[in-house]
Amino acid sequence: MKLINSYILKKCFQNTFMLLFAFAIIYSVIQAIQELGDVGKGSYTTGAMFVYLGALLPSYIYLLIPLSVLIGVMTTTLGLVKNSEYAIMRTSGVSLKKITRILAMFGIIFAIITFMLGEVIAPEASQFAKIYKLNHTNQIISMDLSSGIWSKDSESNIINIRKIDPGNDQIVESIQIFDYDSNQQLKRYVTSPKASYSNHNAVWILESAVIYNYLESHILIEKHDTLSWSSTIEPSYFNVLAISPDDMPAFGLIKYIKHLKLNNESTSRPEIALWNKLLYPFACISMAFIAVGFIPNNGRNVNLSGKLFAGILIGVAFFFTNRMIGFIAVLYSWNAILSAVTPTLILFLIGWTIIIKKEA
Hints:
Layout: H1 2-35, H2 46-82, H3 85-91, H4 96-136, E1 149-152, E2 157-164, E3 171-180, E4 186-198, E5 203-214, E6 219-229, H5 239-242, H6 250-262, H7 268-279, H8 282-293, H9 304-332, H10 336-359
Antiparallel strand pairs: 1-2, 2-3, 3-4, 4-5, 5-6
């Protein structure tokens, strides 16, 4: 049985990695065509474009793993059927339940790989890619607003930042801080041309800061060469401006959601991205179960290519449906957990139902 386990797993790994490589290349070519329009802006040359696309590869692979698992497992199992190896395994006492366990193990392995890739490698690589392109096209992170970035820092504070250095998010320029009282009257206004973040003290150091204190009868002006500013906003908060919440790691999303909740801001999009991030790896297990359902008992009078095509359609449908539901959920403020779990749960139930029927 160990020999059969290793043989099936080896075939599944070979086919899945080969498909994953092919899909990633196709995805990169499509992205390269879109990027050609930006070549020539600043120092964004063709070579810089290839560096950018290479850094985005982990993100593409992360998205394509479940689809590759489905087609890789189906290619393996249908190949076993075509070569009569599946029939020999069954007649030698290997039950469908045992084969299902092997493929479920394969799905679990790729679920772990998907989670680790989405948490450790893909977010860092994606952030590097976006910052790299911003630097080479001479762009700044400003949320596409001429007035810069606006954000609540607490119930009474609103901040405005005109510019963030895309190469160093610990340095920001042209900061304005508006401090209001309980009656929403401006009581203090702080301005500074530049600020840097101190990791040691977890505060921002404002340079050449000017404080305008609005008193009842007059305005008291204070000038400081440096001024410590304690804020809930950390440099990592600006990552969401360079990369979308879908590309952020779960831990980063949790911190970002916490910051938004403290300031009573909408958390719909990052919450949906968080639950998608946590549940997406389980799609690999569901895909393995779906593949089991397409295994015929023998290769005689069975359209194997038709079964493979049907499986590919299911995988592609899941890929696009999962992303479409995410967009619609953000648009209509659907429940984050429900919108994230629905596609994977439906896929899992379909696969499990097919397996039960085959065993009956």
